[in-house]
Design a protein that fits this description.
about 150 residues; mainly alpha; Ferritin; about 0% strand; elongated
Length: about 150
């Protein structure tokens, strides 16, 4: 009788916990958020570690500030969606343009495409728009920095 009772308890426990473990592995509705975070972190590193002079530092500072703001918005949206913020997917590292500013610009364009997918959650929709705004402003600052380097400003 005790063995039967123990088996019933064990079976009930498994029945209760099994759906929870299956839910933990689900990617969620917004798998691109984590990928965008990895690309943003890499773009930020490329801009902040670019050798250069003070002529472009103001544009680079603007780009880094906007990237940081976009990272904050995306982290908030990813957290709301139940994503593991410690998961860092592989970065889309473009190598067809010379220089870190060009590579950062390519990554920011990829981030924009990752984030600019249809959003069905009204709470996340506003976060998405703010994230895109910061990414677009970072892209513009990187483009200005590239032009400044070209023109030796």
């Amino acid at each position: 009788m005790k063995l039967l009772f123990k088996r019933m308890i064990l079976t009930a426990g498994i029945a209760v916990l099994l759906p929870l473990s299956a839910h933990a592995d689900m990617p969620g509705r917004h798998p691109a958020y984590l990928h965008a975070l990895s690309d943003l972190r890499t773009a930020r590193w490329m801009i902040s570690h670019r050798p250069g002079d003070a002529a472009v530092s103001s544009q680079e500072d603007i780009a880094i500030t906007e990237i940081d703001r976009a990272i904050g918005e995306i982290k908030h949206a990813a957290y709301d969606d139940g994503k593991d913020l410690n998961d860092h997917p592989q970065v889309d590292l473009p190598m067809d343009q010379p220089g870190r500013l060009h590579q950062a610009a390519d990554l920011l364009a990829k981030v924009h495409n990752d984030l600019n997918r249809e959003e069905d959650d009204p709470m996340t929709r506003e976060l998405k728009h703010r994230s895109l705004m910061h990414v677009d402003q970072a892209e513009a600052a990187v483009d200005h920095a590239i032009n400044d380097v070209r023109n030796y400003r």
